[in-house]
Design a protein that fits this description.
Largest sheet: none
Number of strands: 0
Strand content: under 5%
Number of domains: 1
Shape: globular
């Protein structure tokens, strides 16, 4: 849950810390993928938020 909360914040506030230098899709995905170890259902939701961030242009995919 600790990894989900910042993801929810960044998704709801137009990127938040995703706008900082060095933060991109690959970095966020790698860090947040640990959610899958705790719950596949929550990970599915989190992965959707990450991909939605890319689609909205608030998370860069390099």
């Amino acid at each position: 849950m600790d990894r989900l909360e910042p993801l929810l914040q960044n998704s709801s506030n137009n990127g938040g810390t995703w706008n900082e230098p060095g933060v991109n899709y690959e970095k966020v995905y790698a860090k947040k993928s640990a959610i899958n170890k705790g719950s596949a259902v929550i990970w599915e939701y989190a992965e959707g938020l990450i991909n939605e961030g890319v689609a909205k242009g608030i998370l860069r995919k390099e």
